[in-house]
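Hi everyone, sorry if this is the wrong subforum. Our group has a chain we'd like a structural model of before ordering constructs, and none of us has done structure prediction before. Sequence below.
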Amino acid sequence: MRIHSDSFSDGQPIPAEFAGGDAKGFAGNRNPHLAWADVPAGTRSFAIVVIDPDVPTEPELIGRDDVQIPLEQARTEFVHWAMANIPAEVTEIAAGSCSDGFVAKGKTAPKGPTGSGQGINDYTSFFAGSDELKGQYLGYDGPYPPSNDLRVHRYYFHVFALDVETLDLPEPFEAKDLLGAIEGHVLGQAVTWGTYTLNDQAVLPRE
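Answer:
Right subforum, don't worry. Here is the predicted structure as tokens:
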């Protein structure tokens, strides 16, 4: 199974139009184009999960002008998109078709392929302490790494081919619910990744 994007090349920078934020603030926040092929026989639906594994574990460091977040600072995952029950006949998501602009407090009914379901992303918890921004963030919301982070963030776009048409998920669901529900149902999977940073001194983490 293969996946590619016309919006960015594998392992290369993601353009700012697909990011949640840029140097000026909230950005275009369009979902990038994704397409997949060589789908396993028996596939009845697809699921997509997008994860950044490079988020600092000490939120008090984020955005400070007096400190740079070290490359080796402990990191955790941040979910940017979780979509389930994508019909088997859908093998492409057009750029901007599921998200086209940042919505404060979150999109209430994000677009997606007919029959699909959009889960909560981690901006829901990230903005929970902000009266201006707190809300339920459904669907895709793109990269917005700390401008003082010395690590280039990586964004992994996973697509899963499943042997079930519909997953049994709570409402609303999170990526962890989706990943639990697909256990034992994955016929194939593919991943592509891109990078994004707001710090011209940032570098990719050493493997």
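For your construct planning: The helical segments are 123-126, 175-181. The first helix runs from residue 123 to 126.
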